[in-house]
Specification:
The complex is a heterodimer of chains A (114) and B (481). Chain A is mainly alpha-helical and 114 residues long. Chain A is built from four helices and no strands. In chain A, helix 2 packs antiparallel against helix 4. The chains are: A mainly alpha (114), B alpha/beta (481).
Chain lengths: 114, 481
């Protein structure tokens, strides 16, 4: 058995096409009131690039590769952690009439304490 | 077996992450479920990051001697980058959100470019993968330097748009050079014969040109258009991450990147529409350089009214709609505004907020600022949901907004904002406009609303005016008791 993933050009294009379509439809349903958290939230989602950085860094065999992929992980982790922090902060502020106001620092999730 | 199980775990974690990203974004369709949605996406992210450490079981032979160093470097990078960004994200003011998003976005673009760079400098790539890696590197690098310029502009470090003659020709030339260098890299790698310089030098030149292009592209765009620009770069970073995912053969990156790409594109188009402009117009023309249109001057006079009288008039209205703009946030008046609204509600007045799509410094920012002040989201309405109700409102309070309530957008074909969707405040029975002075809005044009028979001007700082309104309404209550 083999769990490695290999994608040729057309499989990749199918994935891109379906993901782009799903994104368009899903994002189209987000109400305008949430557009700022949506922007920071989708910003957080592309922080997944940190996984690519980790792959490159763990496979680095020269100082140059180590340096560049270190930067990739550093920036990717910043993208993910920062995007998540601001998005949850903003979303925690939204409440409906009659509901008690949540304190601004409620629901702090710690991501990436590794 | 030693590589099989880690492979299975990494694959499953990435699959789960991709699912949770989509599911989390789907839950953003309502403010009630959005927070739980983004938390789920966060769990997916943590799972994918933790699982990726299992790559240690399948590293190449060349990397094996460096494994301990690499793991240590990875932990340092995660803690440092994640920690600093987390700390800044917890601390940043809600009004500074646009520049923060720009900064995080630039980091993502830089990460995508760096990942592509590792692949380019390595010898693993060939053919299609090489082309895709170059494209990802180009888009990521442009997105990084462009986002950083956007950040500098939004945070006030760069205040004036830099415009010189022939700029667009220069930009196009830089782009062509970048593409030519990319072509040289592909040729040299495939033929195995370096052109003039070693291939690694060409790669450095390639990145240099791409970064330069991002800077040149963004410098001439005015500060008020930066939200559209950030949205474009958000989409571009997504695209770069998606392309990087193809190079690394990681579908989770491809899906996440492409979803963000689509999201960014959609938001960009929505924003451009709300600003009454095309995306090309934002990026390639220099808006805001003094309105060239001979703006029609309006005859009539402005009628100032005391803040206390305005407050009392709204207290005796049955239905009030409030139109807040960024001027309110600039005066830090949101808390006072909600205090005033609560007084009105206690007196039995129906109060709602009407938000224009481009209110604030980025779309939706006004909603976040109101939520921060404690305004429940069921009191906040978007343009298309509330615009017909102005006709039946007893009073409308415009506070810190100008161009988005200018009826010239409906009637005056010569106006630069003609055709822009506006809030129909002029249809309300009575209108109060809180304004610092008689100045014009961002578009530099006079506002016909202010000269209408139903309009009264309340001059002063938004916060000070609201304090006077609150005192006036409180005074009534005391007198009645």
């Amino acid at each position: 058995m083999d769990f490695s993933i290999t994608m040729t050009g057309f499989v990749a294009l199918y994935i891109f096409m379906l993901a782009g379509f799903a994104g368009w439809v899903i994002i189209g349903h987000v109400p305008a009131i949430l557009h700022t958290p949506l922007m920071s939230g989708s910003n957080f989602v592309h922080g997944i690039v940190v996984v690519g950085g980790l792959f490159a860094l763990l496979n680095a065999s020269t100082v140059q590769e180590q340096a560049i992929s270190f930067v990739a992980v550093l920036l990717g982790a910043g993208n993910a952690a920062g995007g998540y922090a601001v998005t949850t902060r903003m979303l925690a502020m939204f409440r409906i009439s009659g509901a008690p106001a949540k304190p601004a620092h409620a629901r702090v999730h710690h991501i990436k304490k590794s | 077996m030693f590589t099989l199980i880690p492979q299975l775990v990494i694959g499953s974690a990435d699959l789960a992450a991709a699912f949770l990203f989509l599911f989390g974004l789907q839950r953003m369709s309502s403010p009630a479920t959005a927070l739980s949605g983004i938390s789920m996406a966060g769990i997916g992210m943590v799972a994918a990051v933790l699982a990726s450490f299992l790559y240690v079981f399948s590293v190449s032979d060349a990397a094996r001697p460096h494994l301990m160093t690499n793991v240590a470097l990875a932990l340092i990078a995660l803690a440092l980058g994640g920690g600093l960004a987390w700390w800044s994200g917890r601390k940043v003011a809600m009004t500074a959100m646009p520049e923060m998003v720009a900064l995080y976005n630039g980091m993502g673009g830089g990460a995508a470019a760096a990942v592509a760079a590792v692949e380019l400098f390595g010898t693993r790539t060939s053919g299609t993968t090489l082309g895709v890696a170059l494209l990802g590197a180009l888009i990521g690098a442009v997105s990084m330097s462009g986002s950083l310029i956007a950040w500098a502009k939004l945070s006030g470090i760069l205040s004036k748009p830099l415009r010189v003659k022939g700029q667009q020709i220069a930009n196009a030339a830089v782009m062509l050079v970048t593409l030519a260098v990319g072509g040289a890299i592909i040729f040299a790698t495939l033929s195995g014969a370096p052109l003039l310089l070693p291939t690694s030098s060409w790669i450095y030149i390639f990145f240099g040109c791409a970064l330069l292009f991002g800077v040149l592209m963004t410098l001439p765009i005015g500060g008020a258009d930066m939200p559209v620009v950030i949205s474009i770069y958000n989409a571009l970073t997504g695209l770069a991450v998606g392309l990087g995912g193809f190079v690394l053969q990681n579908p989770a990156l491809m899906i996440a990147g492409m979803v963000v790409g689509a999201a960014g594109l959609l938001l960009t188009l929505l924003m451009a529409k709300a600003m009454n402009r095309s995306v090309a117009n934002v990026v390639f023309t220099n808006f805001g350089e003094g309105a060239k249109h001979a703006a029609r001057t309006i005859k009539g006079s402005l009628r100032p009214v005391a803040a206390s009288d305005a407050g009392i008039a709204m207290r005796y209205a049955a239905k009030v709609i409030i139109v807040p703009g960024y001027g309110l946030a600039a005066a830090q008046g949101q808390q006072k505004l909600y205090e005033f609204v609560k007084l009105l509600q206690a007196a039995g007045v129906s109060v709602r907020f009407a938000i224009h799509p481009v209110a604030g410094r980025m779309p939706g920012q006004m909603d976040v600022l109101l939520a921060e002040a404690g305004v429940p989201y069921d009191m906040i309405f978007q343009l298309e949901d509330i615009n017909d109700d102005f006709a039946t409102a007893d009073a409308a309070l415009v506070i810190g907004a100008n161009d988005v309530v200018n009826p010239a957008a409906r009637t005056d074909k010569s106006s630069p904002i003609f055709g822009m969707p506006i809030l129909n405040v002029d249809k309300a029975n009575q209108v109060f406009v809180v304004k610092r002075g008689e100045g014009k809005g961002y578009a530099g044009i006079q506002n016909a609303l202010f000269y209408g028979d139903n309009c009264n001007m309340v001059y002063g700082d938004a916060q000070a005016v609201l304090v006077q309104m609150i005192e006036a309404v409180r005074g009534l209550g005391a007198a009645a008791a």
